[in-house]
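Curious: why this fold?
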Amino acid sequence: MIGIAVALYYLSALIYALRWKVVLNAIGKNIPIIELLRITLSSIFVNNVTPMSRGGGEILRITWVAKKYKIPVAISTVSIVYERILEIFPIIFLAVMGISYFAHHAILIILSLFLVAVIVWLNWEKIVILSFKLLKIKLSHEELVNLLSLRKRASLTMMGVGLSFLVWFLDIMRLKVIALAFSWNPSIKFLAIISLANLIFGLMAFTPGGIGIVEGGLIGTLVYFGIPSTLAISITLIERFISYVMSSAVGFATLVVSGGAEIWKALKSH
């Protein structure tokens, strides 16, 4: 079971790389998927050893493709921000699934999901601009226009959102497989709550890779919902071994053998 959970984790990493490739292709930048996978794995390691979730890793991704493939920093930044924005839709879906765990009015839940999705879509430009402000990213007017125009490509948006949903589905299935390893079979709705909580703890954490905060939050959430503390601790330890310890080791090895070490050193010097 644990081997399956590990496989699901790295399949998610591959999907992340594929989603990034789809966006890069849309803006005329063709980078081999295997290279994007190397960068993605390396960025996971950097995220795990730098404060704040996804901070250092995203900078590594931007710098790597800018230096090795001569892609302007603004363009690589646009590609990453756009793919991250696409994650809003599965996160909304996870939130609604979490709500549905407590409520049983399916029609109301579906209408709520539809309403939120419409609001996000109608306010797309504001959400994009807000994302850049939060990330403290500066783009020229022309670069911002190019980013906003990506939404008009329906096939790109649908594929990007679809891949984002697949990543979160694999995340939930990884938790389910780990739970099954301990002879516990939680519902998908319940695991949606746990997955969303895990995301929130990771975003709130100020320690490298969320170490300590994510573990405590995940254990606390499971115990809050009546899961025995020994089971909660066991599941959390296995999950974090895969998503933190093993991913850090694999990411570090990938960073070293893929030529990203020099980029990492340059980033640290700044």
In short: Residues 2-269 form one domain. The chain has one domain: 2-269.
